[in-house]
Specification:
With 255 residues, this protein is an alpha/beta fold. It has helices at residues 14-25, 38-52, 69-79, 109-136, 158-178, 196-199, 204-214, 223-234; strands at 5-8, 29-34, 56-60, 85-88, 140-147, 183-190, 245-248. It has a single domain (5-248), classed as NAD(P)-binding Rossmann-like Domain (Rossmann fold). Helix 5 (158-178) links the parallel strand 5 and strand 6. The radius of gyration is 17 Å and the shape is globular. The chain binds NADP nicotinamide-adenine-dinucleotide phosphate (NAP).
Length: 255
């Protein structure tokens, strides 16, 4: 994988950051986006280039404006000579999810729409732009992050859970139509993982304790638990895996 290029949204924190480092360790060049944390993003670029000998660059990007992926990829083209992997990882939180991250009776179309835009529309436009570049280099691998909150009940998670179910379906459609370009499309669906996004849950401590209790491994998920799966799905070892959702939940969903 050395010398290839990963494009990933939301590479500054949590799972996205763990993925950036997982790929950098393999010698993969990384183009990652950030939203608010420019300082962290620029520090991270320096660290990646100094300690992993790869090319890294950070770009500001808002997943609530997915059509702007077209401009973003034109910028990436100036800095990187190829795109081999695309991971749609970033997720919105705070004010943008009001009316989406809540109880069923409090859901509002605007909040649900924001989450759908950030999850499904952003995946689609990012995947389209990356697929055009992957075709030129003979193929590639596209991944959307998903969550087991579309399979099991998580309080206040209706908006996110429904959008994740939709993006998993979209992944299968992408896989069906991009296979002819040797592009594989998959989802990595995580159970609760210790990140800022989860710590923002109103019932974070309850989710943390319940997850550890449900898991036969007696612990919460860590960002690295999903990063390894992304690396595997992009590698040649996963060369016949496409249209698949890889569930990484520490055994919690079965219980
Ligand atoms: N945590 C979990 O329990 C869990 C479980 C399963 C799946 N997932 C999925 O894994 C993915 C990553 O989640 P996480 O927990 O790592 O999230 P996180 O720690 O909250 O990190 C979110 C990332 O997205 C970026 N971001 C935030 N708002 C954005 C916006 N409007 N436009 C573009 N980028 C934006 C952030 O950039 P800045 O740092 O610049 O703000 C950050 O890099 C998500 O798709 C999530 O649904 C999470």
């Amino acid at each position: 994988m050395k010398g290839k290029t990963l494009v990933i949204s939301g590479g500054t924190r949590g799972i996205g950051q763990a993925i950036v480092y997982e790929f950098a360790r393999e010698g993969v060049n990384v183009a990652f986006t950030y939203n608010s944390n420019e300082e962290i993003a620029l520090e991270q670029v320096k660290d990646l280039e100094a300690n992993y000998g790869i090319k890294a660059k950070a770009y500001p990007f808002n997943i609530l404006e997915p059509e702007k992926y077209k401009e973003l990829f034109l910028e990436i083209d100036k800095d990187f000579d190829r795109v081999d992997y695309f991971i749609s990882n970033a997720i919105i939180s705070g004010r943008a999810v009001v009316g989406g991250y809540t109880k069923f009776m409090k859901l509002k179309p605007r909040g649900i729409n924001n989450i759908f835009t950030a999850t499904v529309n952003a995946f689609v436009v990012g995947a389209q732009e990356s697929a055009k570049r992957m075709e030129k280099v003979g193929g590639g691998s596209i991944i959307s992050l998903s969550s087991t909150g579309n399979l099991v009940y998580i309080e206040n998670y209706a908006g996110h859970g429904t959008a994740k179910a939709a993006v998993e379906a979209m992944v299968r459609y992408g896989a069906a139509e991009l296979g002819c370009m040797n592009i594989r499309v998959n989802a990595v669906s995580g159970g609760p993982i210790e990140t800022d996004a989860l710590r923002a849950f109103t019932n974070y401590e309850e989710v943390r304790d319940k997850t550890a209790e449900l898991s036969p491994l007696n612990r919460m998920g860590k960002p690295q638990d999903l990063a390894g799966a992304c690396l595997f799905l992009c590698s040649e070892k996963a060369s016949w895996i496409t249209g698949h959702t890889l569930l990484i939940d520490g055994g919690t969903t079965f219980k």
